[in-house]
Design a protein that fits this description.
It comes from Flavihumibacter solisilvae. By secondary structure, the chain is mainly β. It has nine helices and 56 strands. The strands form five sheets. It has a 23-stranded parallel beta sheet that branches. The two termini are about 40 Å apart.
Length: about 675
């Protein structure tokens, strides 16, 4: 096969060309391009040296994963041709004339009267397309590809919902769905208030979501029965916990009801009839697409030196890009959007099924040394990630037994609206293993966490984190815990702003005995009800941080001496996890010397938490808990001008004569100008 060869005086590079108007029997030259990226990868595999696949403008719809394995090349890049827009999607186009008005009288009667002329339907059975129903999702459940979703003019539709922008309180519990109920086969039943659910008696595919037991654990489950006489709802399956009532965060909402389609962009699936009913987001639309691919769009396995650049990866049910056993594989300057699961997964989720996150979180909880085969020096940078279903990036790498770092990374990315389907414990970035890094990312607009991590020696730096944890209780924007061997983390120069104070929301959360972090140079500005929470652990070092306008700055407690005492008891979860990493032997004994004597050092008592050189401004209460659980020195609780250039925008920094430099000995100026992503935020707003 003949290929165009470009040669300069110092290096040579083979180029393979792809065009939407090409043909896979062509040569792959600029004048005779191939049709598919997969065929170009196949051609490139036989070429030595550096190979670049240039993709011409257009929408490339794939019905199977584009698989990249090691070829003869020394490096491979797949990029759009200069200045051209390339979309690679896991969808199918739906003819606009397949969108019909609702004519069935019974269905029209179920619609809100003012919506009867606006709701449209697509009959997928007539189109010969099978569609999947909703599936159970939520806390402690596997992370799965989304059901089929509709996208109109690039916008994802959202399930119809009541209430639209809030949740209803759970009423009296008739059947909790606890262990005894499960053993007896009694499904959960709770009471509702008001009359709105009384209108849903004809619904055949009603689902409920919410926080049924604890405010950090969301659920989405089907309904078995609606009893309007007794005002009860019976679930068709069990929640992760039992149903409870009596607390503000224990709430529910209903989805997938044609009766509740009342906002542009809402839809409901009739799985039995294989129809989708929806209210178009715009009056005159030109493009309708249905996500169909449940496997990753791209899979890169067992190879090195691969770059995906200037591509839009979108409209798919599963993962956008999957990597395993890779080195120096980078997603650069791409847009990953409208994805049903995570945008990028580096490392295995479920061992037997490559390309699926699945039940990985629960498996990691049981075996903290899982090796994900995530390789090293892999990552994503300079990219937009938004409208994903179950988080942004799953970032693995490194070896917890040897503490060998991966150096995998997420750098200079904007990550927003990443919990369209799965919420709890589906962060913008999930990070595990050893030695991974998150740098200069803007993370925002999510009901749950920004970063959740496990492992050792990770770095989270220069990030701007706003409006996350918007509906949860007892979660943190940055969160980890329940394993004292997970040490060596650095959290520095991050900006936390506008985290909800409604429930127990934290910016940096060291949960259940977490130990050994270094946290400095961060700005906590209206950062939740408890900006810092140290839950019973030791050896945390907080310094040179700024706290502004919060009811409490730092929470310390001794939970391991009371309600969580079983965690550090003999044969408890801490002992099992410490033994699993051989904590009294090298490399742990050298990296974390205090860990060697963990159980001989009264582990239930918080100690050596050093909190010094920090600035507190407009803070009602600096410490919630006993100050004896921390060492507080050289801090300044200020009540007047601190010396900010703009008090309403701390990121503009301090004046040169700011009082803070005199009042706090050794206080170092913060590199405000390096905090946050450098991508064009205004351009993102238009997408």
């Amino acid at each position: 096969m003949s290929l165009l060869l470009t040669v300069t005086t110092c290096w040579s590079q083979t180029k393979v060309y792809v065009s939407i108007n090409g043909n896979n029997s062509n040569r792959g030259t600029a004048s005779d391009p191939l049709r598919t990226i997969q065929q170009a990868v196949k051609v490139a595999a036989d070429q030595p040296g550096a190979v670049e696949i240039e993709v011409g403008e257009g929408n490339y719809h794939v019905d199977r994963t584009i698989e990249i394995a090691q070829g003869k090349w020394s490096s491979l890049s797949i990029t759009s041709q200069t200045g051209q827009k390339v979309s690679v999607s896991g969808d199918v186009a739906i003819p606009v004339d397949a969108v019909k008005k609702v004519g069935d009288a019974n269905l029209l009667n179920r619609l809100l009267p003012w919506m009867r002329d606006s709701v449209r339907l697509i009959d997928f059975r007539q189109l010969g397309i099978d569609i999947d129903n909703l599936h159970v999702s939520g806390f402690a459940r596997p992370s799965l590809p989304a059901w089929n979703e509709l996208f109109i003019d690039g916008m994802p539709l959202q399930l119809s919902r009541w209430p639209n922008d809030s949740m209803a309180l759970i009423g009296k519990i008739a059947v909790a769905g606890n262990k005894e109920d499960k053993a007896a086969g009694r499904l959960p039943i709770f009471h509702y208030s008001g009359s709105r659910p009384d209108k849903w008696t004809a619904a055949r595919n009603l689902w409920i979501g919410g926080y049924f037991g604890w405010g950090y654990a969301d659920d989405l489950i089907p309904v078995k029965a609606l009893d309007v006489a007794n005002k009860t709802i019976q679930a068709a399956t069990y929640s992760a916990y039992e149903f409870m009532t009596g607390t503000d965060f224990r709430r529910w909402y209903a989805v997938n009801l044609v009766e509740e389609i009342d906002r542009p962009g809402e839809y409901a699936i009739d799985a039995e009839e294989e129809k989708i009913y929806f209210y178009p987001p715009v009056d005159n639309f030109s493009e309708v697409r249905l996500s169909v691919l449940s496997q990753p769009v791209f899979s890169v396995m067992g190879c090195a030196n691969v770059t995906l650049k200037n591509l839009t990866i979108e409209n798919t049910r599963g993962i956008g890009v999957y990597m395993e056993r890779t080195e120096n594989v980078v997603v650069d300057s791409c847009t990953l959007r409208n994805i049903g699961n995570v945008a990028l997964c580096i490392g295995r989720g479920v061992d037997s099924i490559p390309g699926l996150v699945g039940d990985f979180a629960n498996r990691l909880y049981e075996d903290v040394t899982i090796y994900r085969h995530a390789g090293k020096n892999n990552g994503i940078k300079n990219s937009y990630i938004y409208n994903t279903g179950a988080g942004g990036v799953s970032l693995g790498g490194g070896n917890r037994l040897t503490l060998k770092p991966a150096n995998n990374f997420v750098e200079n990315c904007i990550i927003r609206r990443y919990n369209r389907i799965e919420k709890s414990y589906r962060p913008a970035v999930w990070m595990d293993g050893v030695g991974c890094r998150i740098t200069r990312c803007d993370i925002s607009d999510a009901p749950s966490m920004a970063v959740l991590f496990h492992g050792n020696n990770h770095i989270i730096e220069y990030c701007r984190i706003t409006n996350v944890c918007s509906e949860v209780d007892d979660q943190g924007a940055i969160y980890y815990g329940r394993d004292p061997s997970e040490q060596g983390h650095i959290i520095r120069y991050n900006y936390f702003k506008d985290l909800s104070p409604r429930h127990r929301v934290t910016a940096t959360y060291h949960d259940d005995g977490a130990c050994g972090s270094e946290v400095y140079g961060n700005i906590y500005y209206r950062a939740g009800s408890l900006p810092v929470l140290i839950g019973g652990g030791s050896d945390h070092h907080y310094y040179n941080n700024i706290f502004i306008e919060s009811p409490v700055a730092i929470h310390l407690d001794n939970r391991l001496q009371n309600w969580a005492a079983q965690m550090c008891a003999p044969d408890g979860i801490f002992e099992k996890r410490l033994k699993s990493v051989n904590y009294q032997q090298s490399p742990y004994s050298k990296a974390y010397p205090k860990l060697v004597n963990y159980f001989n050092d009264n582990p239930a008592l918080p100690k050596r938490n050093r909190i010094h050189g920090n600035l507190f401004y407009r803070i009602k209460k600096v410490v919630n808990g006993e100050t004896k659980w921390g060492i507080f020195t050289n801090n300044w609780v200020a009540k007047y001008d601190l010396g900010f250039v703009d008090p309403e925008d701390p990121l503009k920094g301090f004046r040169e004569d700011a009082p803070v430099f005199k009042r706090i000995k050794g206080f170092q100026d913060i590199p405000f100008d390096k905090i946050g992503c450098t991508l064009n935020v205004e351009a993102f707003q238009l997408q």
